[in-house]
């Protein structure tokens, strides 16, 4: 099918960004919004790496209830402030159908996380919200199930959907999940939607973020979603996968080298 382009960031004062076949989009930022200073610093790092969009979770769906669950509404305020300073459109996760209106009031793009890929009430709610949607693949979802989840969003009138491959559960324990790199061209043949890759959450290890980013570019992904943090050791969420310092500079030079327009 003819490939679609999704435009993110209109109407919020951000610099609009295209995600699709004619460009390669780097979305970067902290796993979780922890403070204004941390998010601003991460956004500057993201920009330095060539990112045109900011990621950051205000609502964090964590494996254990004792782990940091995100700043919630305060985090959304911070993201909007950082957008104003940097001009970067913001993608952030919504985990509760009842929060879709709230999150839509701040975000440029609504993220549905891996854990919620088959939460049909959430998919329908984001489908009605009138914002572009980043739909991550569930770690136990087949490509068909993933595409059916996208249909739930589309059925509510929203075709601005970007799919994100973020690894699936296999017998392998060396990485957090196994990046299904083949899913990128598979889905691009089955669907018109843009497909990006999350090398950070799929591997759970910062030393693999660069190699997997190169793989994503090689296989024809429309972009990548990468965690950066000013102080990964102190991160409240997923520090071991966050890039900082020299790693961010290497990501920037890799993208400049491999993507002509970047
Ligand atoms: C995230 O991107 O913040 C996240 C929680 O990822 P996933 O839903 O893929 O686990």
Automatic annotation (TrEMBL):
The keyword Transferase applies. GO terms for molecular function: 3-deoxy-7-phosphoheptulonate synthase activity; aldehyde-lyase activity. The keyword Metal-binding does not apply. It comes from the Bacteria. Its EC number is 2.5.1.54. One of its GO terms (biological process) is aromatic amino acid family biosynthetic process. Residues 16-255 form the DAHP synthetase I/KDSA domain. It is an enzyme of class 2 (transferase). Keywords: Transferase. This is 3-deoxy-7-phosphoheptulonate synthase. It comes from Jiangella aurantiaca.
